[in-house]
User: Which sequence fits this backbone?
C-alpha cells in the first residue's frame, strides 16, 4: 500500500496550485501539476490519475471544457474530477451533465479538512481499482497457464494413445485409422497405394538367448530403420510383438517391394551390431486392388508374408 497515488492539479495560478498541494502533499499522493487545459489533457494521456483537481476559471480552455474532453476519451473517461471554483454560476448545471464517472466540486476558499476527506475517498477508490486490476490480471494469467498445461497434457495423451511405447511407431489402433483414411483418399483420387507387412525371423530365439533387453533393442533398431526409409506421407506401425506394417500412398507394388528389399538388407547388416548373430526379417508386399478394403488388403499382405516365411524367410514376397 506504499505506492503513491497520482493526482493532477490543474490551475492557471501557481499560488492556487501551491495552496492545494500544501493541503494534500502528506497523503501518500504523487502530485503532478498543469497550468492550462492543454497541459492537463496531455498529462492525462500519460498517467492513470486517481483524481484531477480542476480549476474552472482558466484563460483559454476552461475547466468544464477540459473535463468534457477527458470524459470523451475512453482512455481517460474514468478519471474522477473535482471542480474547484469561486462561484456557483453554471456549476450545478454543468455537473448534472455528467451521467457517469465521479464528479464533485469544491468552493473557493476551500476548507482543508473537506479537501483532504474528498482526496482520501478517491485515493482509496484508486487503490481498490488497482487491486482489482491486479487480481484480474493474475487470474487471467493463471487461467492462461492452466489452459496451456491442459492442452499439452491432452496432446501428450493423444500422442501416447496413438503410439507404441517401445518403438514409438504408430500403434495398431492408430494405424487402422490412418489406413482407412489413406485407402479412401487413394480410391477418391485414383492413385496406387501399397502395403508392406514384416515379421522378424526367429525373434523368440533372440529373447530366449540374449534376454528381453536385447530383444527390445532389436525391435527399436528395426523401427529406426523403418523411420529412416519411409516418407512423411507413409505410416509405419508396430502391428504385434515382432510384426510391423507400413502403408505407402502413391506407391506401386514394385516400388514398395524395392523399398522392402532395402529394409531387409539394412536390417541384416544392422542386427550384427546388436546381437552376436545375424537376424533377418520376412516381408509381404501388396498393392491395393479394385474392391479391396482395409481388411482384405491386410489379409493379402499377411498371405504374402506367410509365403515369405514358408519359402525360407529373409525375403520379400509380393502378392
Ligand atoms: Mg483560475
Assistant:
Amino acid at each position: 500500500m506504499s505506492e503513491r497515488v497520482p493526482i493532477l492539479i490543474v490551475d492557471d495560478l501557481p499560488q492556487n496550485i501551491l495552496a492545494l498541494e500544501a493541503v494534500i502533499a502528506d497523503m501518500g499522493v504523487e502530485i503532478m501539476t498543469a497550468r492550462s487545459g492543454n497541459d492537463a489533457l496531455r498529462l492525462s494521456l500519460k498517467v492513470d490519475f486517481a483524481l484531477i483537481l480542476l480549476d474552472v476559471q482558466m484563460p483559454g480552455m476552461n475547466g468544464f471544457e477540459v473535463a468534457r474532453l477527458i470524459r470523451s476519451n475512453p482512455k481517460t473517461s474514468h478519471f474522477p474530477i473535482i471542480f474547484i471554483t469561486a462561484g456557483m454560476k453554471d456549476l450545478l448545471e454543468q455537473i448534472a451533465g455528467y451521467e457517469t464517472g465521479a464528479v464533485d466540486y469544491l468552493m473557493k476558499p476551500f476548507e482543508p479538512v473537506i479537501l483532504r476527506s474528498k482526496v482520501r475517498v478517491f485515493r482509496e477508490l484508486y487503490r481498490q481499482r488497482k487491486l482489482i486490476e491486479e487480481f484480474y490480471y493474475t487470474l487471467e494469467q493463471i487461467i492462461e497457464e492452466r489452459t496451456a498445461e491442459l492442452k499439452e497434457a491432452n496432446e501428450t495423451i493423444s500422442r501416447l494413445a496413438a503410439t507404441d511405447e517401445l518403438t514409438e511407431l504408430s500403434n495398431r489402433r492408430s494405424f487402422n485409422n490412418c489406413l482407412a483414411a489413406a485407402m479412401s483418399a487413394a480410391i477418391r483420387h485414383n492413385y496406387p497405394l501399397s502395403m508392406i507387412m514384416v515379421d522378424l525371423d526367429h525373434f523368440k530365439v533372440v529373447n530366449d538367448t540374449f534376454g528381453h533387453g536385447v530383444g527390445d533393442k532389436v525391435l527399436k533398431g528395426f523401427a529406426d530403420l523403418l523411420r529412416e526409409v519411409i516418407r512423411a506421407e507413409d505410416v509405419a506401425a508396430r502391428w504385434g510383438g515382432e510384426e510391423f506394417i507400413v502403408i505407402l500412398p502413391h506407391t506401386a507394388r514394385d516400388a514398395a517391394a524395392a523399398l522392402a528389399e532395402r529394409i531387409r538388407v539394412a536390417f541384416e547388416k544392422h542386427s550384427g551390431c546388436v546381437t552376436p548373430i545375424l537376424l533377418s526379417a520376412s516381408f509381404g508386399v501388396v498393392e491395393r486392388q479394385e474392391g479391396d478394403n482395409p481388411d482384405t488388403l491386410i489379409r493379402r499382405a499377411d498371405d504374402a508374408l506367410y509365403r515369405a516365411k514358408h519359402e525360407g524367410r529373409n525375403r520379400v514376397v509380393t502378392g
Notes: The mean pLDDT is 92. The chain has two domains: 5-134, 172-318. The radius of gyration is 40 Å.
